[in-house]
Specification:
By secondary structure, this protein is an alpha/beta fold. The protein contains twelve helices and 17 strands. Helix content is 26%, strand content 23%. Helix 8 runs parallel beside helix 9. The longest helix has 12 residues. The protein is elongated and about 80 Å long.
Length: 388
């Protein structure tokens, strides 16, 4: 078929995560990759054993190639370490997504991909290169609109990471068109990157951190504070037995969040303490948040009560919240947190709150928040209580 359609462009799209590919299919893919001057799109999603054979054929110049996606099934990641040929040259490449590849040749290839609009690098290894090396190569990609840097977390690399992060950073990068930035990896690595990045029109920031109790956020705070398009008005905290997810939206109706944070942390007391420490300096960034929600998906294990102070510290980051929503499994925690005989405390925590809405359940008496509601009423700052 390829021989009888020599004038047509080729879109190579092969997706099979679970099975061995037939010999005829593998032969057809290899034959298509040899038609370098015709290939416009490549997407290969298959087990690593097959990709190791096919990826070396993505070699030489592909003058028409606009998108390249090389993906591995979840169970094959972290140990395949694919190697893209250093001689691969796609001068008009616009979209590049790679999973579990050796990054060294990829960084060299990026020097020829100045038209890239989307770059997604998944499950890469921070121990193999310094932040300065990464920034130097990214600095050539001035047309980027979406950037994903996803490091494979390996605790054994901690010492090497510290050495790399201690090296001087000479490169500063401006991405004039970047609208979405996703980062998964060490908190310290992100702090270094953000201190040397400028993204004037960024609209979405997504961050995943491995388990950690203490965070450094000075550069993250400054970065978010200087990104004018990062509008934040509605915040949602979701706790469960794997971690915390924070979603902050530009408005209540928005389906895509402007800021997304995922921290791996198992127990509720650690989760709340981590969030309190992380958000402690973020009050200026979240000054526009008027709607705040807390949810907790409790699994088979029970949690002990969380000390009030980290809850208070977290809530103080949202001083302009007017509506607070509390889901069923956190009603006990939050109602206890808001109890106090101190009028100054009652007025100082969520001072602009107008409505407190909570979901009811079998064990709830219906008066969990009455103490807080009565104290605010007496203080002249009434709050409407809504039981759902």
């Amino acid at each position: 078929m390829l021989a009888h359609s020599s004038h047509l462009p080729i879109a190579l799209d092969y997706i099979d995560q679970n099975h061995d590919i037939a010999a005829g299919d593998e032969e057809g893919i290899m034959l298509a990759l040899q038609q370098r001057h015709r290939v416009r799109h490549i997407r290969l999603l298959m087990p690593g054993s097959h990709l190791r054979k096919l990826v070396p054929a993505i070699d030489g110049e592909f003058p028409m190639l606009e998108s390249l996606f090389v993906e591995l099934p979840e169970e094959d990641r972290y140990n395949t370490n694919l190697i893209l040929p250093k001689t691969f040259r796609p001068p008009h490449l616009c979209r590049l997504l790679l999973t579990d590849v050796d990054l060294s040749p990829v960084l060299q290839i990026l020097t020829t991909c100045v038209s890239l609009v989307t770059l997604s690098l998944h499950d890469i290894y921070p121990a193999y290169f310094s932040p300065n090396d990464l920034l130097q190569h990214l600095s050539l990609l001035s047309q980027l609109k979406s950037l994903t840097i996803n490091f494979h977390h390996d605790p054994s690399n901690a010492v090497i990471e510290r050495e790399l992060l201690g090296a001087p950073i000479m490169t500063r990068v401006t991405f004039p068109d970047l609208r979405r930035f996703l980062f998964r990896g060490a908190n310290a690595y992100l702090e270094v990157l953000l201190s040397h990045m400028t993204t004037p029109i960024l609209e979405t920031l997504v961050v995943f951190f491995p388990h950690r109790v203490m965070f450094s956020t000075a550069n993250l705070l400054q970065f978010m504070g200087t990104t004018k398009n990062l509008v934040l008005t509605t915040a949602k905290f979701k706790f469960d037995d794997t971690g915390i997810i924070v979603e902050v939206y530009p408005n209540e109706e928005a389906e895509i969040c402007a800021f997304y944070l995922d921290v791996a942390c198992r127990y509720l007391d650690e989760q709340v303490s981590s969030m309190a420490q992380l958000f402690d300096g973020f009050s200026p960034v979240f000054s526009a948040v008027e709607r705040l929600a807390f949810a907790y998906e409790k699994r088979m294990w029970a949690h002990s009560e969380v000390d009030r102070s980290p809850w208070h510290r977290l809530l103080r980051s949202f001083r302009n919240v007017k509506t607070l929503l509390v889901e069923y499994d956190l009603v006990g925690e939050l109602s206890r947190c808001l109890e106090s005989d101190d009028d100054e405390f009652v007025l100082g925590l969520l001072p602009e709150l107008k409505e407190l809405s909570y979901s009811s359940g079998g064990y709830l008496s219906g008066d969990e928040f009455n103490g807080f509601i009565n104290a605010r009423q007496v203080a002249g700052r009434p709050v409407t209580l809504v039981r759902r």
